[in-house]
From TrEMBL:
Matches recorded under CDD domains: STAS_anti-anti-sigma_factors (cd07043)
Domain of life of the native organism: Bacteria
PROSITE patterns named in the record: STAS (PS50801)
Family: Belongs to the anti-sigma-factor antagonist family.
GO molecular function, one term: anti-sigma factor antagonist activity
Organism ancestry: Bacteria, Pseudomonadati, Bacteroidota, Cytophagia, Cytophagales
Species whose genome carries this gene: Rhodocytophaga rosea
Residue ranges of domain STAS in the record: 23-111
Descriptive protein name: Anti-sigma factor antagonist
Length: 114
């Protein structure tokens, strides 16, 4: 998995690409998010449209990210999961925990209305 971050208007956009399967990949992302949160950025759009495959490590990473933002009074929204990832979120019932929207613009609207 690779990722990029972009901060705009007090919202961080994290674009994730590849397979979310490993602990090592996640550690770099989690450290980057800790640094972003320390800057006072508490709203996040996680673009997971380019995630091809996700296992339990990937699910753990997403829930850890969500927890990091919510415990500090923030929020995270997922955008455009692939069909396979969407099915995984439904099977694990995490679709009830995460806010999932179709695109970045909808995510920004959702975050600003919170």
């Amino acid at each position: 998995m690779t990722y990029t971050t972009q901060i705009s208007d007090q919202i961080v956009r994290i674009t994730l690409t590849g397979d979310m399967t490993g602990f090592e990949d996640s550690q770099s992302l989690l450290k980057a998010v800790d640094s972003i949160i320390k800057q006072g950025i508490l709203l996040c759009v996680a673009d997971i449209s380019q995630i091809r495959y996700m296992n339990s490590s990937g699910i753990n990473t997403l829930t850890t990210l969500l927890t990091k933002f919510r415990t500090r009074g923030g929020e995270m929204v997922l955008t455009k999961p692939s069909e396979q990832v969407q099915k995984l979120l439904i099977i694990t019932k995490l679709n009830a925990i995460f806010t999932i929207v179709e695109d970045h613009a909808a995510a920004v609207v959702k975050l600003k209305s919170e």
